[in-house]
Amino acid sequence: MKAKYILLLALLVAIPASAQKIRVYLNPGHGSWGPDDRPMPTIPYPMLASTGRPDTCGFYESNTNLWKVLECGDRLMKNGNFTLKYSRRKNGPYPYRKGASNEARYNRSLSEISAEVDTWGADMFLSIHSNATSEGALVNYPLFLYRGTDAEDYVENSKAMCQKIWPRLTEAMHAGFEVMTHYNSSTNIRGDIDFYHSSWTNDRGITGYLGVLHHMAPGFLSEGYFHTYQPARHRALNEDWCRQEGIRYYRGIADYFGVHTDDTGCIMGQLHVYGQKSDNLEYFNAVSGSLDEYLPANGVTVRLRNTNDEVVATYETDQNYNGIFVFNDLTPGRYYIELKGEGYKTRQGKANPTVVKAKTTAYKSIYMYSGTSTPFDDETGVEELQGSASEVQSDEAIYDLSGRKVRSALPLGSSKNGRLPKGIYIMGGRKVVF
Ligand SMILES: [Zn+2]
Fold this sequence. Notes:
Elements: H1 2-19, E1 22-28, H2 61-79, E2 82-86, H3 110-120, E3 124-131, E4 143-146, H4 158-169, H5 171-174, E5 189-191, H6 192-196, E6 200-201, E7 207-208, E8 219-226, H7 230-236, H8 239-257, E9 265-277, E10 294-296, E11 301-306, E12 311-316, E13 324-330, E14 333-340, E15 354-356, E16 361-368, E17 383-384, E18 398-399, E19 405-407, E20 424-427, E21 430-433
Parallel strand pairs: 1-2, 1-3, 3-8, 4-5, 9-16, 17-21
Antiparallel strand pairs: 4-8, 6-7, 9-10, 9-13, 11-12, 11-14, 14-15, 18-19, 18-20, 20-21
Helix pairs in contact: 2-8, 4-8
Bound molecules: zinc ion.
């Protein structure tokens, strides 16, 4: 009896602490695998003749929004300072049937969600979406919308949250990892009333434009990127890429509330095939001058080694034309990325480690070179390239072993060359032998 009594006391003591937790309401947009979920075609998952929509593994905004939210939510919970409510944690039901009694089970009405935000008493509200314009358009940038006008947020601190989280969300774009066609040196944070030139008042007397923002919690709706930008849509087929966006919201929310975040860091990379254009691909209209102009490398094994020469993780890029690889929860330090795939020269080397820092993601864009794949060399890790340096076109500068630059980066496709003597050089961070 005594033990039980102590346990009960412990529970009572725990209650005030949990009551002080920051209450975050998370809303992953859409949710039924129906026509409202913005299904769009991709190379591996085109529209099916039977439904006019792709297979549920294909692009549905509802899938990608959910992955982002779940990752953000998992990390907020692990952080310990937050308590959460989700508008949904699933998608479906499958198959979608218009008019079915369960059609809106995970695609709830926006007025129901916004009322729930207030009933629950959220300290913050975040709705996660992606943006769309005409299919195949070459625009890609984020947009944050809060309830109010551009001049005034109708719920105090909404704008401040946007401003604090914007730098985190745009990190991957500012790193050049994703195309950012606008707002490179500004923000795109807007009041929904001015953005849509319209407003209405709900039955609780709350005025705004977006139904999901008709509540009294500070926060915003994020359109993280444009899924009508086709290469980005192929990236979104990769759940880990979506989850990285969730991690960026998590870090931004932690920044805003001033709480400690993760002691670990991440690497997110993407692989493209050197010299092979992506312009023959269907659904792959790419921004000129961007990495998306090059074929993403499917099915490449990515190995991560630490400075003790231990393989700490392995990833295989998917078959969905994004070349994305992700390593999460890494102890800060230096790591080596090693690459091997059918039809590509194996790449490994120790000249240019990837530096992982706590609370951040290191973004790496790497080329695969067509050629014969060889097994990983666990002894030397020096990469051999055939021919002279002048024949190996590279958008990466070439250095000698003392670190002196011996040739500048050449634009891809350039016919320029500069003859170099045979020897060992550093290129793109790897030791290469010409
Ligand atoms: Zn949406």
